[in-house]
Amino acid sequence: MKKGKSISFESMHRKSMNDPEFRDLFKKAQNKGRIQQALFDLRKESGVTQEKLAELVGTRQSNISRWEQGLCDGMKLATLERLAAALNCNLDVKFVPKKGRG
C-alpha cells in the first residue's frame, strides 16, 4: 500500500484560511466558542448551578446546558444581557476591525 503525503494541521489551516467562506465560518465558530466558554467559566466561578442560573434568567436548565455546549445558534443580545446580570457582570460587545482590510 502506498503511503500518502502527510500534511500538518497548521499547514492545512493556513491554506483553508485563504478561502473567504471558510474564514468567515471559522471566525463565527470561534466567537461562538468564546461565548460558550465564558458562560461556563463565569457560572463555575460564581458557584452557581445550571438550575439556579436558569431560574435567575427565566429559562430552563436544559437551555443553559445547550448554551454552554454551543448547541444553539443565534443567541439574542437580550439573552446575553440577562445572563450577564444573573452572573453579576457587565456584557461588553466589541466591533473589531478586520486585519489587512481597508
Quick take:
The protein has helices spanning 9-16, 20-46, 50-57, 61-69, 77-86.
Topology:
Blueprint: H1 9-16, H2 20-46, H3 50-57, H4 61-69, H5 77-86
Summary tags:
5 helices; mainly alpha; 102 residues; 0% strand; 434 Repressor (Amino-terminal Domain)
Explain this structure.
It contains 5 helices and no strands. The model has no long low-confidence stretch (mean pLDDT 89). It starts with 8 loop residues before the first helix and ends in a 16-residue tail after the last helix. It has 102 residues and is mostly helical. The chain has one domain (15-86): 434 Repressor (Amino-terminal Domain) (Orthogonal Bundle). The protein is elongated and about 55 Å long. The protein has helices at residues 9-16, 20-46, 50-57, 61-69, 77-86.
- Straight-line distance between termini: 50 Å
Named CATH architecture: Orthogonal Bundle
Say what the CATH topology is: 434 Repressor (Amino-terminal Domain)
Q: Spell the H/E element sequence.
A: HHHHH
| Overall form | elongated
Query: At the first level of CATH, what is the class?
Result: Mainly Alpha
State the domain count: 1
